[in-house]
Amino acid sequence: MNINFTYLPGDGIGPEVGAAALAVLSAVAAQFGHTLEAEDHLIGGAAIDAGEKPLPEVSFGSCHRTGAVLLGAVGGPKWDHLKGADRPELGALLPLRKRLNLYANIRPCKPYEALLDRAPLKRDRLEGTDFVVMRELTGGIYFGKKGRDADGAFDECRYSEPEVERIAVIAFDLAMTRRKKVTSVDKSNVLETSRLWRETVERVATRYPEVELEHLLVDAMTMHMLTRPTHFDVILTENMFGDILTDEASVLCGSMGVIPSASLSDARDDGKTVGMYEPIHGSAPDIAGQGKANPFAMILSAAWMLRLSFGLDAEATAIESAVEAALVAGDVTGDLGGSLSTSDVGAAIAQRLTA
Ligand SMILES: NC(=O)c1ccc[n+]([C@@H]2O[C@H](COP(=O)([O-])OP(=O)(O)OC[C@H]3O[C@@H](n4cnc5c(N)ncnc54)[C@H](O)[C@@H]3O)[C@@H](O)[C@H]2O)c1
Ligand SMILES: CC(C)[C@H](C(=O)O)[C@@H](O)C(=O)O
Ligand SMILES: [Mg+2]
């Protein structure tokens, strides 16, 4: 098969973890007899520095055409003085998610056995943790009207019923393939959008009698995630809460550098589902350019791309096994207690795939 995808390295550690992921993809493609056709395009600060908009139309066009996107990260202090849609985050990442209709963002939290002692939590609390956060990605406060007026500043938060319903359906469908439990997280004691969220989720739940549904308020959820992480199966939540909770979840997994993500659309008119795959971490300006970034999250995102956009399950599993083997062997970066560079970790995993 020709694996044709759009590669958007972006900013900071994005190109570093991206190069490691490309090395791994090349190895797996060679091993399984595929060709790799990565369309490399600018996004974010890298695009701004090249005199382009944060999301050049040629970059978007490639994403739209291939329908499979591997993205590093965007943003950083260099572009923090920019305002509104001139910023990498607001001018590139959010419109890309919105224009590709990538409303379902899936972020897993299943700590590796080899990392159980790296998390600040006690091993006995952590053992058996295996949940997935289903984050709504194209609505809520991120996409509401925002601005400044005489009184100050405002960010409007809106959700429509269909927007909540479609992400809830994905969460319940996923729960049916797992432990049949959905925890919906909101702030319905204060927010009207959360009240609509809760009502809609309850209505969707009636179609899934086998799935157990519970509701938790987001403030309490931050505590429950740390005190009883094994309780959760599928966590369903809105855009901003999902962003915050998944960075918290990374602590359970031992590092920001190990959690991949997939953002998926419904099938388009041409029958194709679009997928964008990116680590949950950002451009990590504090370690960028030093070869210190952990490439696991990006490599695992690439594995998800193979599985979900190209149906290459054996290839994805081979990458996941090679990542775990590297972890067990201690072929890891400093955040996980090792001494390897980003590219060395990529090479160690690639080598396991060709051995
Ligand atoms: N998807 C994205 O493009 C994305 C996601 C999050 C943040 N950002 C952007 O990234 C910039 C920096 O944000 P931040 O510092 O709050 O978050 P961050 O995720 O970049 O970094 C948070 C901390 O985790 C560490 N870290 C992150 N990834 C790591 C990795 N792979 N290996 C080892 N350590 C890692 C960093 O060194 C830092 O100490 C901001 O401009 C932000 O908007 C982009
Ligand atoms: C960079 C930022 C806009 C983004 C988000 O909040 O969605 C990031 O934090 C993420 O988790 O993907
Ligand atoms: Mg985030």
TrEMBL record:
Pfam family, one: Iso_dh
Keywords of this entry: Amino-acid biosynthesis, Branched-chain amino acid biosynthesis, Cytoplasm, Leucine biosynthesis, Magnesium, Manganese, Metal-binding, NAD, Oxidoreductase
Co-factor binding comment: Binds 1 Mg(2+) or Mn(2+) ion per subunit.
Binding site for Mg(2+): 219, 243, 247
Residues with site note (Important for catalysis): 142, 187
Major place of residence: cytoplasm
Molecular function in Gene Ontology: 3-isopropylmalate dehydrogenase activity; magnesium ion binding; NAD binding
Cellular component GO terms held in the UniProt record: cytosol
Domain (Isopropylmalate dehydrogenase-like): residue spans on this chain: 2-349
Known catalytic reactions: (2R,3S)-3-isopropylmalate + NAD(+) = 4-methyl-2-oxopentanoate + CO2 + NADH
Keyword set includes Metal-binding: yes
EC number(s) recorded for this UniProt protein: 1.1.1.85
Swiss-Prot/TrEMBL cofactor(s): Mg(2+); Mn(2+)
One GO process term, biological-process aspect: L-leucine biosynthetic process
UniProt binding sites for NAD(+): 76-89, 282-294
Protein's pathway: Amino-acid biosynthesis; L-leucine biosynthesis; L-leucine from 3-methyl-2-oxobutanoate: step 3/4
Binding site for substrate: 97, 107, 135, 219
Major enzyme class: oxidoreductase
Record-linked HAMAP family: LeuB_type1
Entry function: Catalyzes the oxidation of 3-carboxy-2-hydroxy-4-methylpentanoate (3-isopropylmalate) to 3-carboxy-4-methyl-2-oxopentanoate. The product decarboxylates to 4-methyl-2 oxopentanoate.
Family: Belongs to the isocitrate and isopropylmalate dehydrogenases family. LeuB type 1 subfamily.
Assembly behavior: Homodimer.
Protein name: 3-isopropylmalate dehydrogenase
Lineage: Bacteria, Pseudomonadati, Pseudomonadota, Alphaproteobacteria, Maricaulales
